[in-house]
Amino acid sequence: MLEKKEYANGQKVYELEDNVLTYFYEDATVKAKGPFVEDKMEGEWVFYRKTGDLWQVGHFKDNQKHGRWLRYSRDGEVEYDEHFENGKLLKKK
Fold first, then answer.
1. What's the total number of domains in the chain?
2. What Gene3D superfamilies would the database entry show (predicted)?
């Protein structure tokens, strides 16, 4: 998962600090951030658009979507409200 370390422009792709993994876009804007434990995405993760606006908030368990996932439109409205269990979609609003 953590293979590519830098973009062509030298910007780092990710940073792992105190079990928190942060992914970046090429322009250094934060792309995603959340707990990374024992080489796995765990707990609540937050994803951003290149503009810096909030895009998704979701939960992982053992590297798989698990729990509630919200996706926001560019206007900040909830686009999707989904619930997953071990990577499988249970219901979508």
1. 1
2. Histone H3 K4-specific methyltransferase SET7/9 N-terminal domain
Instruction: Let me know if residue 28 belongs to a domain.
Output: yes
Question: Is the CB of residue 42 less than 8 Å from the CB of residue 60?
Answer: yes
Kindly state whether residue 6 falls inside one of the protein's structural domains. Answer: no
Q: What is the mean pLDDT of the chain?
A: 95
Q: Within 13 Å and on the Cβ side, how many CA atoms surround 92?
A: 5
Q: Which pTM was predicted?
A: 0.91
Separation of alpha carbons 25 and 49, rounded Å: 9
Report the alpha-carbon distance of residue 62 to residue 57 in Å, rounded: 17
| Distances 26 to 6, 7, 46 between C-alpha atoms, Å | 9, 6, 18
In a domain, 40, yes or no: yes
